[in-house]
Amino acid sequence: MSAVRIGIDVGGTKIAAVVLDAHGEMISRTRVDTPGDYSSLIAAVPAVIERCGQAARNIMGVGIGMPGSQSPKTGLWRNCNMTFVNGRDVVSDLTAAIPYPTRIENDANCFALSEALGGAADGRAVVYALTLGTGVGGGLVIDGRVRRGPLAIAGEAGHMPIVLADGATPRPCYCGNFDCAELFVSGTGMARDHRERTGANLTAPQIIGVMRTGDVHARETFQRWVDRLARLIGALTNALDPDAIVLGGGLSAIDELLDALNAATPRYVFGQEAAPLIVIGETKESGARGAALLWP
Ligand SMILES: [Zn+2]
User: By the number of CB atoms within 10 A of the CB, which of 21, 78, 149, 158 ranks highest?
Assistant: First the structure.
């Protein structure tokens, strides 16, 4: 029996798992609910792997993607929106609980890897991925390998500040800084911006729905959101000039997004000549698939 790789994506609500065969084909996948406490989470991951392993016994490696990263300074997990894992020794605890070689990586880095290897940015040398959901994640893949960096924060554009042209009062971010991109380009950021301007309490998908019925205020909220996202992508492009920028997360599914971004981005790119190549992620179970691909 040829060797398989198992990839796990630990999300806030679900743990997704996939099994890839020697050719990288997905031969099975499964999902379970994410437990709400640390010890249950550490127990749940090997249980999911066990379920996957019934399809194939020759497991060459397990990859796990989850929000946050291991601090190079303390070795402990940090910056995770599942706050109960922060300050815990996630890497040691998971590798001890899993009876196979295991690699653990930031989930947006796994998404970037999945799209760089067989996805929307397949074959591109420098791939930057941005996930736009409740929060904002970022990942960087160079020549088919995750670029993690000595501080383990490469690609974390969600916490780059966006300078707002209207001179708004600096807004504090949970990370300790002000005016981080995540506060504006996440789904919660779009919803908050709409609420502050109009008083209407809508979610990001609801705002888009209302915009499509012709609502002028929703259209303006969408345009402000696109403009801020374009500013972030412009800054990333000035720093990296990547071969592709891949968008993922729930907001990347907005049909109007790509045209609007391609129109808005060039003015924020040095020289103002062009936008970078922006594509929408297309791989299935991309977080879990990318985690499996940590084993090349
Ligand atoms: Zn921040």
Answer: 158
